[in-house]
Design brief:
Layout: H1 3-11, E1 17-20, E2 23-26, H2 48-51, E3 57-58, E4 61-62, H3 80-89, H4 93-119, E5 123-127, E6 133-138, H5 141-152, H6 158-161, H7 168-179, H8 187-203, H9 210-216, E7 227-230, H10 240-243, E8 247-250, E9 256-266, E10 272-279, E11 293-299, E12 311-316, E13 327-339, H11 346-349, H12 351-379, E14 384-385, E15 388-389, H13 394-425, H14 431-461, H15 474-481, H16 491-504, H17 508-521, H18 531-551, H19 556-584, H20 590-599, H21 606-611, H22 620-629
Parallel strand pairs: 7-10, 8-10
Antiparallel strand pairs: 1-2, 3-4, 5-6, 8-9, 9-13, 10-11, 11-13, 12-13, 14-15
């Protein structure tokens, strides 16, 4: 026995552990400095840590510490703002009971289904074993369970049953808000299903879509249908007017057959679809531009030979995110269809669909933010770094608080647009409500899409390296969030849509906006602590009005350059007003007040701030191009 071993064994009986402050801890053994003769082996006596079997890192022994994972608890019970908002506007016990039970199911059961959808993505089987073309899109069992669940829980039906009158959309979207991050992206086919249902309802529920409407809104899983939305072709995404080449050939029975190539069809396993095409006349000619587009309804079915009728699935898209959902390129080769719109009125007919799908997109954005904050908040109570829990590090709490402020702002903005939609559908919307809904729909979609990417990205940092590891499920939150600023219109496309909205209403939508913001601020005098936030929003609103007056005297290109900053300003000012209003109701908490104050610390009117720098002047256009393409600037050495 070596001297070091003897000393250790003498100091600590048994030679393998010691007691310090009443806690038993493994002993750190120190290898002896003695050297064995060449060609000889040390005895077990010389290696007590191996003989005792206590070496902490050896072969299959990887140490005793394992970090606890973040736990997903009931998302309804974990969301104080959601519950507070509903207590204020929809205090019905049946709603609270349903959302609480659904939240429990999401946490205990559905979230695992969503993970299964992620790790078992859809596969395309072109041929059967005997070489026949079948084009089967094979999805996971969990994806199919999501469809049944969606019917049972009324995730589309609630919006049309209207059990809560004008607040039914808020109820429906609250449920989707709870469901979305755990849905395995099934909220995407639900968004398109809701949009298609809205279009059918607006056109009229009659043949040939009466049966379809019944199936889209049923709560019976065996009857429930989802709908696709096949608009995008090779030449265009948002520019459907010039990018749509699909033609509709009239048939003798009044139906049509569609021929074309759809470049991007989400949720391709749907039971039906709405799509745009150009009607051919007797000579085979079509009308160009938006005037030539009509809206068509088609069912996805198979013939007796097992092949899809009039459809060939070319391939599934390999996407950054949303891998749980099949997205395909489709060749339409004689797809039987029925025209729903008047000929040439296809683009106008899908306006209602765009409103619905953009609102769904915004709900998913707010939900993604809430989920990453919820998980990060829980993790902060489990992870120790530098001697204390993350929740005890002030800088970490500051970061989480900033994420929480963005999440709360997004939630209130989204729910107010849902409120406006519910009022319109219930027939009680005022002209001000109608103007606000038209203006805020593109604003909420573009702003929350950008918020979600930023907040979820920040959220992954809260988990350190684990936030970058795929099998934790966390990176998927970011990959899926990235689509939210792209689908149904990119930020720039929607910013220009805001300008069109202002122009087509002769500025009435802005007048409605300013009027309502002032109304939301009117009750704030009862809460003196909100004064700094009220001052900030009121000042930003004045700056916005001044900008609009200046822009009205400039060329149209001036507003186009300002469009993105204008949309951001509209979102921030309105959200600030909503946060102030929510902090003023009698059931508000001190955190509601603090949220409003923190939100209003940022630049609420970036369009005015940027205007003072001359960034919207026409001379910046060639300078921007020269910068991007590294070209010489004219007149500069």
């Amino acid at each position: 026995m070596t001297v070091c071993t003897a000393i250790l064994n003498r100091c600590v009986p048994g030679g393998c552990c010691r007691v310090l402050c009443g806690v038993t801890r493994p002993l750190l053994h120190i290898r002896s400095a003695s050297v064995a003769e060449p060609g000889t082996r040390r005895s077990d006596e010389d290696r007590p840590w191996e003989a005792a079997g206590r070496l902490p890192f050896s072969r299959a022994r990887t140490g005793s510490f394992f970090q606890d994972r973040p736990v997903l608890n009931n998302p309804f019970l974990e969301d104080a703002l959601l519950r507070g908002y509903l207590r204020r506007h929809l205090p019905q016990e049946v709603v609270f009971s349903d959302l609480c039970a659904f939240g429990e199911r999401v946490a205990k059961e559905v979230d695992e289904w969503g993970r299964d959808c992620e790790v078992t993505p859809p596969q395309l089987v072109h041929f059967d074993p005997w070489g026949r073309r079948v084009d089967h899109i094979v999805t996971s069992p969990a994806w199919k369970r999501m469809k049944d669940l969606s019917a049972q829980e009324g995730l589309v039906a609630i919006g049309y049953e209207r059990p809560c009158g004008e607040w039914s959309r808020v109820y429906q979207m609250s449920k989707l808000y709870i469901f979305s991050p755990s849905s395995g992206l099934y909220t995407c086919p639900l968004a398109m299903t809701d949009g298609a249902t809205k279009v059918i309802q607006s056109i009229g529920v009659s043949w040939p879509v009466e049966e379809a409407f019944s199936r889209l809104t049923t709560r019976q899983p065996e009857r429930f249908w989802t709908s696709g939305q096949w608009m995008t072709e090779r030449q265009g995404g948002s520019d459907v007017a010039s990018g749509t080449e699909t033609v509709a050939v009239p048939q003798t029975d009044g139906s049509y057959k569609l021929h074309g190539f759809k470049w991007f069809t989400s949720a391709t396993d749907a039971d039906m679809t709405l799509t745009l095409a150009r009607v051919q006349d007797s000579t085979g000619a079509t009308t160009p531009g938006s005037r030539g587009l009509s809206l068509f309804y088609a069912e996805v079915s198979r013939g007796e030979d097992g092949r899809l009728r009039g459809i060939e699935v070319q391939r599934l898209k390999d996407k950054l995110g949303t891998r749980q959902m099949p997205t395909a390129e489709l060749l339409l080769d004689g797809l039987p269809a029925h025209r729903l719109s008047e000929e040439g009125r296809g683009v106008a007919s899908i306006a209602n669909m765009l409103t619905i799908t953009r609102i769904h997109n915004s709900v998913s954005a707010a939900a993604a933010m809430r989920r990453v904050v919820q998980l990060a908040r829980d993790y902060a109570t489990r992870r120790t770094a530098f001697g204390k829990l993350l929740k005890d590090h002030p800088l970490h709490m500051q970061t989480l608080a900033r994420m929480e402020v963005q999440t709360r702002g997004a939630f209130l903005l989204v729910m107010d647009v849902c409120r406006l939609l519910g009022r319109e559908e219930s027939g009680i919307a005022t002209q001000l409500d109608t103007h606000l809904l038209r203006l805020l729909t593109p604003v909420v979609k573009l702003y929350t899409g950008k918020q979600a990417v930023a907040v979820v990205s920040e959220g992954l940092e809260c988990f350190g390296g684990q936030g970058y590891i795929e099998d934790t499920g966390l990176p998927g939150l970011l990959r899926d969030a990235q689509v939210l600023s792209i689908w149904e219109g990119t930020t720039n496309v929607l910013s220009l849509d805001v300008l069109r909205c202002v122009a087509r209403s002769s500025g009435m939508v802005l007048h409605a906006y300013i009027t309502h913001v002032k109304f939301l601020l009117a009750g704030s005098s009862s809460v003196p602590s909100l004064a700094p936030a009220v001052k900030a929003v009121d000042g930003a609103l004045s700056e916005l009005e001044e900008f609009v007056q200046v822009a009205a005297t400039r060329a149209p290109s001036y507003l186009e350059l300002a469009a993105r900053d204008l949309a951001y300003s509209l979102a921030r000012i309105y959200t600030g007003a909503l946060l102030i209003d929510h902090a003023c109701w009698k059931g508000a908490s001190p955190t509601d007040t603090y949220t409003a104050l923190r939100w209003c610390e940022q630049d609420l009117c970036p369009v005015a701030t940027t205007q003072t720098r001359g960034c919207y002047d026409l001379n910046t256009v060639p300078l921007d191009a020269a910068l991007v393409y590294d070209q010489p600037i004219q007149g500069k050495n």
